[in-house]
Amino acid sequence: MIHLVLARLGLVGPDAPLVWLAVLAAVFTAGVAASGRSEKAWGSDDRKIVVDEIWGMMVSLYLLPVSPLYIVTGFFVFRFLDIVKPFPARRVERVGGGWGVMLDDGVSGVYACVILHVMRLVVG
Prior knowledge:
Blueprint: H1 2-8, H2 17-42, H3 51-60, H4 68-84, H5 89-93, H6 97-123
């Protein structure tokens, strides 16, 4: 849903790569600060912290067409990878604090993005 709102505002989509990077950077920066503070209150990477999931999902959809196909497929691919934690996700998670919370989801998001772009090339 957030992705669709941002797309309507022209902040994400294949036609706005630099704006999208700026949005990703802003969400990451805010997420590091917020999740760092939240960890102090709730513990390490608590389920209540969701900004990392939002950011990872945004990373997974980078430069892809804004469509239900990519959003839904991206969600499932990202969630699978976020659970499996492919290398180096588990390692960067150990960084700790807000950085660790955000970076492991970023790794999963990058892997998901690559998979979705390959899927786009193969399927068309």
